């Protein structure tokens, strides 16, 4: 029975990511299909092209959907470009302010903003390295981010041992967590990208990155 349970658990772990990915792709496809099918612009373009005899209904739909998808992609790229200039940033701030003031939406929206900010600023000096420490007690290991190697004041207070400033994030929201100081000899620096560590924390350990051992 234990053997069967073990095989079942292994099968679930193997199949689950595939099923989740397929479900997400299926949802995206259905969403786009419903949107494109009910869009007035798409309907008018389809009707216009069908007036030409050399276009079949299937060919027309494929052509219209392709054009619509290209327009959507182009719109997203233009939006991203617009957000990089002064006017775009001001619009983005107003949108953020609007959603941040809606009671039920605020906690969800602000959390997404924090995670987005963390993902896009992961290569700054705020987080220098991904580290592994025994926290909150011996025998339990936690991922953390090295934020500073300089801690002279507390090193003098505690007798001179080198202390590293570590931020230990919580899961699934890595923007909250604990700031701790750990002796350098008890900190294991890992060869993991900051963004990969963030994905690991957000997923609750489901997405494990590949890294080089020291």
- Which descriptor suits the 3D outline? extended
Return the structural class: alpha+beta
Strand tally, please? 5
Q: What is the N-to-C order of secondary-structure elements (H for helix, E for strand)? A: HHHHHEEHEEEH
Query: What is the average of the pLDDT values?
Result: 77
Uncertain spans, ≥5 residues at pLDDT below 50?
none
Terminus-to-terminus distance: 39 Å
The biggest sheet amounts to: 5 strands, antiparallel
Strand order of the largest sheet: 4-3-2-1-5
Separate helix tally: 7
Q: What can you see in these coordinates?
A:
Among the domains are: 86-120, no CATH class; 129-202, no CATH class. Helices cover 56% and strands 14% of the residues. It contains 7 helices and 5 strands, in the order H-H-H-H-H-E-E-H-E-E-E-H. A 5-stranded antiparallel beta sheet has the order 4-3-2-1-5. 8% of the residues are buried.
Short description:
The chain is an alpha+beta fold and 214 residues long. The chain is built from 7 helices and 5 strands.
């Amino acid at each position: 029975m234990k053997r069967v349970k073990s095989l079942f658990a292994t099968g679930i772990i193997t199949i689950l990511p595939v099923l989740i990915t397929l479900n997400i792709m299926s949802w995206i496809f259905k969403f786009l299909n419903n949107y494109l099918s009910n869009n007035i612009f798409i309907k008018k373009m389809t009707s216009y092209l069908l007036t030409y005899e050399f276009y079949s209904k299937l060919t027309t739909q494929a052509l219209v959907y392709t054009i619509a998808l290209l327009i959507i992609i182009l719109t997203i790229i233009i939006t991203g470009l617009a957000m990089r200039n002064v006017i775009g940033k001001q619009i983005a701030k107003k949108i953020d302010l609007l959603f941040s003031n809606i009671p039920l939406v605020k906690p969800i929206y602000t959390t997404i903003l924090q995670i987005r900010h963390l993902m896009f600023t992961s290569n700054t000096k705020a987080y220098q390295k991904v580290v592994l420490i025994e926290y909150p007690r011996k025998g339990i290991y936690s991922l953390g981010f090295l934020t500073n190697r300089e801690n002279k004041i507390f090193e003098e207070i505690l007798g001179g041992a080198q202390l590293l400033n570590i931020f230990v994030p919580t899961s699934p929201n890595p923007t909250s967590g604990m700031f701790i100081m750990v002796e350098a000899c008890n900190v294991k620096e890992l060869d993991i990208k900051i963004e990969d560590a963030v994905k690991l924390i957000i997923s609750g350990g489901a997405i494990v990155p590949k890294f080089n051992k020291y």
